[in-house]
Amino acid sequence: MTEQHINAYDYVVVGGGTAGSVIASRLTEDPDTTVAVIEGGPSDVGRDDVLTLRRWMGLLGGELDYDYPTTEQPRGNSHIRHSRARVLGGCSSHNTLIAFKPLPSDWDEWAEAGADGWDAAAMDPYFDRLLNNVVPVDEADRNAIARDFVDAAQAALGVPRVDGFNKKPFHEGVGFFDLAYHPENNKRSSASVAYLHPVMDERPNLTLMLETWAYRLELDGTRATGVRVRTKDGEELLVRARREVVVCAGAVDTPRLLLHSGIGPKEDLEALGIPVVHDLPGVGENLLDHPESVIVWETHGPIPENSAMDSDAGLFVRRDPETRGPDLMFHFYQIPFTDNPERLGYERPPHGVSMTPNIPKPRSRGRLHLTSADPETKPALDFRYFTDEDDYDGRTLVDGIRLAREIAKAAPLADWLKREVCPGPEVTGDEELSEYARKVAHTVYHPAGTCRMGAATDELAVVAPDLTVRGLDGIRVADASVFPTMPAVNPMIGVLMVGEKCAELLTKTTGSENR
């Protein structure tokens, strides 16, 4: 196999996903700036299996999924598999496109963690720049049982009904989500659809290298000069960056790429025989997620067919008035979500619904690490679910199951429900509920934090507030891996906003160099 040099570009963006699509689109608005996007998956253009939002579940575990296993989780569910999308648009081509502007308390928490310039006031303008079509679930997609869930939650818990979660910050509320989609045809308004599809054929300065896998960064001393990639034909190329390499490969593949490039904790790299280029102990640490559990009911009969993506409504509550935002969330699924309970012997009912209590601000922290020097070997994802000191995460799920039962007893939802399938009405004690909730826990696919942003004094911070990698030149990271802490809401919009801010930082840097 011969390695060839190919053209140099001003910027090389690794990952054509949620943030990468934004950055590539914004940088190439200047016709004199050349950008290559390295994307491991194929294009999403013309692919109805990807572009139709309601078909999202069919993508899980399929050919467009990197599908990462989880290490043994003594207090959680060791069978969780983390879907990461292998297609243009990344996880915004794969997920449910629930679209929440992060709450002011989420951004302010970042600023307090050392991400100077990322407070709510500074970040607010980036939301208005987003090109995605963010709209509330369309009236035609508002399933009758989901409407009744909203009414029942409001009646049972006294939380306000929210019509448009992005209109103003909230602590509590129940309602239909905002989604990044086109309701008239149920098509996605993903990062690729919104940012790349309109320009990909008309900007000669934008090069998409699809089905091309980045396996190592090229460095000259402490300066990143390019990326080593393998095409789908097995050809190995060096793609050079004249200005900067921007790594947007996500919370799993960004730290993986850095580690295989010799950037990370010195002892770990040496133990695997990877030459250490730059000792950076925080790479792979601070692995975050939004774990959730599930409670399932059988319904008296089939549920009406209409829906945007089968999980169109949700609930937020604030149990502790001292917290700045919501501390318990639910998705309401118009399907019986029994994949994990079936492992414990529960049976899927013919018709049913689920509520999924979720931990907006989990306190457990995990880590990602390599098990081999071979870049083809998947990294180990050890989320350390439910290992926080005071069992805050576990207790949150128990509270969630109890609240879910209150909602299920309330009209008008109660009339639909025949029986509680799992955990089952006989499971009532805190310990039994906790064991059930943790064993059937699943992920909503929100890994984050593995290259976290922080102050210069923070030894475990991987990137500075301008997204540059500490101690290196010519390289930035922009994706969910830079999150210092987890937003209380679904993080996709936050990642798009990171992309918008990164593009602005890059443009400003170039402008000042030219002056």
From TrEMBL:
PROSITE patterns: GMC_OXRED_2 (PS00624)
Region (Disordered): 350-373
UniProt-listed PANTHER family: GLUCOSE-METHANOL-CHOLINE GMC OXIDOREDUCTASE, OXIDASE (CODA), PUTATIVE (AFU_ORTHOLOGUE AFUA_8G04090)-RELATED
InterPro entries: GMC_OxRdtase, GMC_OxRdtase_N, GMC_OxRtase_C
Residue stretches making up the Glucose-methanol-choline oxidoreductase N-terminal domain: 250-264
Descriptive protein name: GMC family oxidoreductase N-terminal domain-containing protein
Pfam families, alphabetized: GMC_oxred_C (PF05199), GMC_oxred_N (PF00732)
